[in-house]
Amino acid sequence: xxxxxxxxxxxxxxxxxxxxxELVKRLKILSEALQESDTNDESGHPxxxxxxxxxxxxxxxxxxxxxxxxxWLACCLxxxxxxxxxxxxxxxxxxxxxxxxxxxxxLKGLESPSNPLFRRYFYLLENLSVVSTLVLAVDLPPEDATxxxxxxxxTSMEVxxxxxxxxxxxxxxxGSATEDDGDERSESRDKVIGLLIGMIxxxxxxVDQVSAEVLDVLFFYLINPQKN
Length: 228
Known about the structure:
Elements: H1 20-35, H2 40-43, H3 50-56, H4 59-62, H5 67-84, H6 93-106, H7 118-131, H8 142-160, H9 163-174, H10 179-206, H11 212-223
Helix pairs in contact: 1-5, 3-5, 5-6, 5-7, 6-8, 7-10, 8-10, 8-11, 9-10
Main location: nucleus
GO cellular component, one term: nucleus
InterPro entries: Pds5
């Protein structure tokens, strides 16, 4: 019997069996529809898209290796969580953990500002920051919350130390980039890092206890930075 999944109007069903090109096409349409959706509190439909979130949280989607599929899926998941905010739409803590970790890992695409989909990665980052989506991790079991926070720290450090950002900073410093290009990229990098730091700070404040695993990540990147 087919699964009863609620989609926004004019959105096509998204089966696990779809090829990546079709997945990207359908997820893009879905993402654009969800981006325009009011919150469930505003619409008066508290359970709207709950079945859609559970469907998209399946491992067949979260484990897809295509970067294009990942960014459009992450945007869809983030907007569904925005629609439900401040409520938690998933009853299974492990499923919520997996969704949050997937979304955070997808942010690694921010390390490449030349990526044609960079604006989507930045939209995802702004969405998570404005809605404070990652604070949902605070209500997870401590070990799951730690996993989300460690992933956020690791991903943020990788983005901040991304080779493409560093090469563009160097180009700006040695004069090989135009002044306007250098200023624009520097401003984008500052915005990205500022939003990431804001999310990290909020999550660190809200968790009951900062675990040794989280401190290990901080020490690894901050006290003994990686040299390339």
